[in-house]
Write a structure and sequence with these properties.
The complex is a heterodimer of chains A (384) and B (290). In chain A, the strands form four sheets. Chain A has a six-stranded mixed β-sheet with strand order 6-7-8-3-9-10, with helices on both faces. A five-stranded antiparallel β-sheet of chain A has the order 13-12-11-14-20, with no helix packed on it. Chain A has a five-stranded antiparallel β-sheet with strand order 15-19-16-17-18, with no helix packed on it. Chain A is elongated and about 80 Å long. Chain A contains nine helices and 20 strands. The longest helix of chain A has 18 residues. With 384 residues, chain A is an alpha+beta fold. Chain B starts with 5 loop residues before the first helix and ends with a helix. Classes of the chains: A alpha+beta (384), B mainly alpha (290). At the A-B interface, helix 3 of A face helix 7 and helix 8 of B.
Amino acid sequence: MEGTPIATPEGERVDAAASSEADIHLEGVTKRFGDAVAVDDLTLSIERGAFYALLGPSGCGKTTTLRMIGGFEDPSEGVVYLGGQAVTDLPPYKRDVNTVFQSYALFPHLNVERNVAFGLERKKIGKDEVARRVAETLDMVQLGALAKRRPGQLSGGQAQRVALARALVNRPRALLLDEPLGALDLRLRKQLQLELKRIQQEVGITFVHVTHDQEEAMSMADTIAVMNKGKIEQAGSAEELYERPHTAFVANFLGVSNLVDGKVLERGIEMATVETDDGTVRVPCARMSEAAGDAVRIGVRPEKIELVPAEQGVPDGRNALRGRVSIASFLGVSIQYVVIAPGGEELTVIAPNRDGGQPSSLGVGHEVLLTWDPQHTFVVARDA
Amino acid sequence: MLRLSLRTRRTLLPYLFLGPGLLWLIVFYAIPLINQGGVSLMTGNPEQGYTLQWHFATYTNALSDYGTQFGRSVLFAGSATVLDLVIAFPLAYFIAYKAGRWKNFMLLLVVLPFFTSYVLRTVAWQLILNDNGWVVHRFQDVGLISANGRLLASTKAVVAGITYNFLPFMVLPLYVSLEKIDRRLIEAATDLYASRATAFRKVTLPLALPGIFAGSLLTFIPACGDFINAALLGTPKQYMIGNVIQSKFLNILDYPTAAALSFILMTAILIGILIYARLLGTRNLTEAAV
């Protein structure tokens, strides 16, 4: 199996991959259900071969977006392009994409093999070729032995693989995955995440993955688009989104954030100064678009913070906030503190367990200093 | 009060639950059936009574004498079943998928005829198809029947009557099996390059098979033994095997022939069902609905 990526059926498609033309492109797409706006003037581009995740809470419009790419929903406004061709008015069966449904939607009256062959049988492909490709794809998802079983006789993980094989066997332009691992237990989910990633790299086709699980998105996707209320809040690599979130929503949806209100005092050449309730902190200008006088929130991730007793004083060049420890939980690998800042914000600090236990000087009720490298500070707009 | 160990109670429990139903079946089904089997092998006459003589010739005589009526029963019941399927499928499809909030109301309409008696409903058809009725006149106007043509007392009328009377038995099982189909399967089929028509043929129809099977049986079996429609809407030329059995039992009092005819009908239907189930695929009938 390894080292033998499945070739795309037509040569020119491989060439298309070389160009930077977007494989999937949505232009100003809006979807309304009655008065409710599910997707709001959305524009996005997905490159050929990318593993693209649409991440967001339920009701954010991510599944509706996927269904518009698949052709199951008509956009109220806007245009859907697949490979540069406008397909907005094409029904699903005329679109060169396949979907892995959340509920798998396997045909209960057909066995595994016939389920997987369903798409190929609709195209004019010889029987031998169909059988060969079905067997090959079932091997890829490690289900060759279950070819004759009916869906009713499969476990959740097996059914999920059949759904994947049934879509992949058609070698579509893109694979659309609608919360494909949502119904599985945690251990199986982790295992299938790795497998999905492996298969995506092996076949090299574009995956668009809808999920509400930030860890799932981060572990698999090259690009994550965080959606909220029908819009994309921010799109980028997992690292970009985590280290430099642009909005409070993104900062809180991906991991834990400590956000403190402030006001920009001045913008220097490299560093800007932001005034908080508790003195000033410095922020790299590259991480901030706001001008002096703007209201902002500064943020820092819990693991970037070092917690020291208040008496120690701030080391040179580090940002600092004061606080009082309100909760200290020993988690084994780390110790998690909740510190109340003077402004009332609850700040989370995760300190690695280096000393074999919890230092008594940082116990509950102690006055402490939270210090961090200014390079790790990020700035998000203050919501109204 | 009898005190039994938990274990004994556990083994007895299934029989306790089965008991009433089993007893009912034995008393009102098995015993009469065996009794009629015995009657079918008797000889004698209504005046002196009948005695068991193991007279199997009654069966061969009944078959050769009433082969026409048997054939007619199968033909009429079969035609009505096919017509019912053709009428009921779109109706059940519409109720299951398109009726929205009218769903329950439409189902009520389907069952509503059951609130009047079977015979009365058939008599009503007699009035509708009457020679001086509106329907016959309109049919004559548009030339569907000749100027002095009739609708009543014809094969058409009998088949139409059976079709009408058994329609709900086709609609309801079809509705249930269509309603149960996950609509996401249709989405999945269209995602896999099936047009709406292909999706219907490859997914909806196979998954509706249990309903088609159940509906056909519920229509065909009672229709085969029906005598009301032929008696009220037809002439002796349209008489079905049900009419023969009825007249043998109740008018001529030839019990052995009547019983033999009943057994032949039952056996023929059983064999027919087995072939039908085999054709549709028993696996599809039992597993498709999972």
